[in-house]
Amino acid sequence: MQQQGALNVNRTFLSSAVAAVLIAIGIAGTGLSARLAHAQAPAGAQAPGPIALVDVNYIFKKHVRLKSQLQELQEEAKKVQEGFEQQMQQLNQEVKNLENFKPGTPDYTHMEEALVSKKAQLQGMIALKRKEFVQKEAHVYYTAYQEISDETKYQCEQRGIILVLNFNGDRVNEANPDDVARGISNKVVYYNKNLDITPLVLQRFLTNAPAHPAVGGPTANTGLPFK
Predict the structure, then answer these.
(1) Could you say which DSSP state residue 164 is in?
(2) Which domain holds residue 49?
(3) Number of neighbouring beta carbons within 10 Å of residue 114
(4) Contact between residue 179 and residue 24 where contact means Cβ atoms under 8 Å apart
(5) Lowest-confidence pick of 3-7, 22-26, 72-76
(6) Secondary structure of residue 1 in the 3-state scheme
(7) Closest of 13, 44, 53, 43 to residue 30, by C-alpha
(8) Over the stretch 73-83, which tens digit does the pLDDT of each residue have?
(9) Residues 40-54: pLDDT tens digits?
(10) Neighbours of 178 (CB within 10 A)
């Protein structure tokens, strides 16, 4: 440990579900919600045949309950972050206090070892908390996706649709290389807008009401086995 240096603790422990909070406090994160763009879905579209399209990303963005859960996750992340910030400030102050001791003395060595141990413990806590938030985010999104899948099944069984493809209806911004790559990799090159049943599926998620149970079985409400 350097006598004059402040302890730098890796603070990127939160996932992208709390992106707004991370940006506000200067932390970058990655995860499932990094790119949720606004898709252009025609209102009241009906599928004319056995094949249809659904823009899952668009539904994620408009899903009322999902947005509420992510907001709760953001608030939780902010509180956790503030707690770690306080601990880091205290640790850095202790590092500065080390300057009051002469290097090589027993007191200096003892305090230095204690600070090294505290730093390691704090870094471990941050890593565990980051994993916890990533798992929570994944669970929230998985549950929402399962609901969307069940609602899609319900709508299809009501209309005789036998195949649904997930597509991205976002317009491609040619000035953005990532956006161009996303557009090129889109499996749907062209579609009749009447094939887009996104508005039909979306209606169930514009409120906090539970999803329609799919015909032949209840709505799935299972998540990833994180616990």
Answers:
(1) E
(2) 16-205
(3) 12
(4) no
(5) 22-26
(6) coil
(7) 13
(8) 989 999 999 99
(9) 334 444 444 799 999
(10) 9
> Does some domain include residue 132?
yes
Of the candidates 10, 29, 46, the one whose C-alpha atom is nearest the C-alpha of residue 199 is: 46
Which residue type does 78 have? Answer: K
Q: Residue 62 has which token pair?
A: 């408009």
At 45, list the tokens.
Answer: 């579209």
Q: What's the chain's length in residues?
A: 227
Amino acid identity, position 176 = N
- Scored b (16 or more CB within 10 A) or e, 198-219 reads bbbbbebbeeeeebbebeeeeb
**How many Å apart are CA 164 and CA 52, to the nearest integer?**
5
For residue 102, what are its two tokens?
Answer: 């002469």
**Do the domain assignments include residue 99?**
yes
Let me know if residue 217 belongs to a domain.
no
